[in-house]
Amino acid sequence: TSLSTSSCVGILYLMEHEEEYVFTLPSAYARSILTIPWVELGGKVNINCARTGYSATVTFHTKPFYGGKVHRVTAEVKHNPTNTIVCKAQGEWNGMLEFTYSNGDTKVIDTNKLPVTRKKIRPIAKQGPLESR
C-alpha cells in the first residue's frame, strides 16, 4: 500500500488487490488552547473505489459545547451499482465501533485492541514526489 495526498484529497492504493481508494479528509479543530489543548476531527469524509463500486461516507461529529461525547463517528457503506447500503457504523473512531450489516449481522470492534502493523514503505529514492512516508 502507498498513500499520497494532494489538496485535501488522498489516494490509497491497495496494490495486492489492484484497488484505488480516493478520499477526502476531515477538518481538525484546536480545542482548549488556553488550558490543555487537544485536536478534534469534524466533518464528512467521502471514500470511493471505482473498481469495486463501493463508496462510504464517514461523519466525524464534533462535541457539543455542553455535554456530549468526543471522537464520535458514524458511517455508511454503499454499493453504488445497486444503490444499496451494505453497512452502517457508529461509535468512537478511537474506541468502540459497532458495525451493522444489511443482513442484520452486527460486529463490535475495540480499535484499542487491534494489532499494530509496521508500515512497509519503499526507499525514499524510489518514491514519487507526492508520496508520503
From TrEMBL:
Return the Gene3D superfamilies for the record: 2.40.160.120
* Entries under InterPro entries matching the protein: OSBP_sf (IPR037239), Oxysterol-bd (IPR000648)
Q: Cellular component terms, GO, for this chain's entry?
A: cytosol; membrane
Q: What Pfam family is a match, any one?
A: Oxysterol_BP
A single GO molecular-function term is: cholesterol binding
Which top-rank group of organisms is this from? Eukaryota
Enumerate the PANTHER family for this protein: OXYSTEROL-BINDING PROTEIN-RELATED (PTHR10972), OXYSTEROL-BINDING PROTEIN-RELATED PROTEIN 10 (PTHR10972:SF47)
Task: State the name under which the record lists this protein.
Answer: OSB10 protein
Question: What species is given as this protein's source?
Answer: Neodrepanis coruscans (wattled asity)
The opening ranks of the lineage are: Eukaryota, Metazoa, Chordata, Craniata, Vertebrata
